[in-house]
Amino acid sequence: MLVEPRFIACYSLLWSLPLLERIKGIRAAIRTLCTNQVEQQPFDREALLTLNAILAIGYPALEVASGQEMVPVYRTREADQGAVLLPIALSAFHLFTQAERHRLHKCKNDRCILFFYDTTKSATRQWCSLDCMNRARSLRHYRHIKKERAFTPLILIRVL
Predict the structure, then answer these.
(1) Residue 144 covered by a domain
(2) What gap in Å lies between CA 85 and CA 89, rounded to an integer?
């Protein structure tokens, strides 16, 4: 899909240091809420306030699509930052309110920081991706071999 130059110009004006800081804030809030969800802890109030503050800049509306057909849309009260922040907040909103909670998992790889929504039939997926699974298994194998070699006694045979 090609992006029209007028959209690139529009979005390039949106990016600023304050927007970046707000994106980092909402990312941290969503990560905290995901951790709370997965570990079955009470939800962090500060993270909820951060997410709700972003959700408050948007509102649902109806728009005529064609002829007599109306479609739901979300509009934003902050034209500059809302176009970037609101879709992120709405995705989190839908994840926490409409998705099956038991399908949200943290990747089993200790080195991975990702959460994922498990769409498998059995809802037993443990890794965010096959690459992450392979990296974790390779590391576990490497550590096992290293430990095995560390405990292998060195036998010297003297030939006369």
Answers:
(1) no
(2) 6
